[in-house]
Amino acid sequence: MPTAPLTIEARDGRARAGLLHTPHGDIRTPAFVPLASTATVRTLHASEVATLGYDMVLGNTFHLFIQPGHEHIERMGGLHEFMGWRRPIITDSGGFQVFSMGHGSVADEIKGRRDGGHTRRMILSIEEEGVRFRSYLDGSERFMGPETSMEIQAALGSDIALAFDECTPFHVTRDYTARSTERTHRWLDRCVAWQRERGPEGQLLYGIVQGGVHEDLRAESSAYVSGAGVDGVAIGGSLGQEKEQMREVVGWAAAGIGRDDVPVHLLGIGDVDDLLDMVALGIDTFDCATPTRLARHGTAIVRDPERRWRLDLERPEWRESREPIDEGCPCPACREHTRGYLHYLARANELTAIRLVALHNLTFMAALMAGLRDAIAAGELRAYSQRVRSGDAPF
Ligand SMILES: [Zn+2]
Predict the structure, then answer these.
(1) What residues flank ion ligand 1 with Cβ within 5 A?
(2) Is the pLDDT of residue 336 over 70?
(3) What pTM value is reported for the model?
(4) Catalytic: 159?
């Protein structure tokens, strides 16, 4: 890229608001990135996602590699064209999904929905070259390494590619985490080399910081990754078991980056209070399955900090409720429907329930991020976060 990928327009403490520039346009930051893992934000069409206020979605390298295959998507004109989304796309590296099959515990996306528990036998080998595993689709043997991951992301034509990494889980030893993080760094160098030589014009490459919950490993990893010739830094892996530890670990990783102009993405975090904390630490972009996954379970994100911002529409108390999910929310579920109706739809497993709650949850997240951007621009992040924490915002 001829210019720096991130323009910082306002700062409030360590938080910043600005624009992230990519070949398919700018992303207003801080931004939440909805998942379009399988080339769709489930139950929504692309233009609706844009209308909700999102500038970027996340495509999943691993899932698209397995089905329908990156070569197929390339022949169909690339991922933007294939899914009818002509704005920026970030693709993850596939590392998280590949390793989740073996490590198990963090694989909620795959676990339960995909394979009913036979995760242990799915990884065949982990070597310096990459990872050999079985396809969850048909059991066939597949391979993914740094070059494969970059090749897939190049074929998809994403605006931001992530380097292939091992997502180290919480339960492994410090020694394992240290060795794995070093290998992730070697894999990063291979990704950078491949992309320089053969990557698509203008595609940004982010390296992923690992290091588990260890301060020195996180600091080393941040320094390594940000010095490796990447356009941005993503923070991945286990961030600990509780929120306090997460703040600490992300704080170490963010401080270790050392350069202030680098865009920073936090992988897999999307709870309301976490977003407030992490924006305050200077994170620019977030992706998380939570808003769309909760929708599948009939759970709406609401202004209720006491209940972790969640409203379970399937609970019997809503059966005869004539109120909307949130009277302040402009989404179609809230403007036109009652909790009672949504309760019925969710209990009856109607697709419309998933769709309406997804529209609501993504409206909530978009409003929250817009509120955070405005608050940073006005130098009022603290006061705004306090309003969110007491249930007075984002509506
Ligand atoms: Zn709503």
Answers:
(1) 329, 331, 333-334, 360
(2) yes
(3) 0.94
(4) no
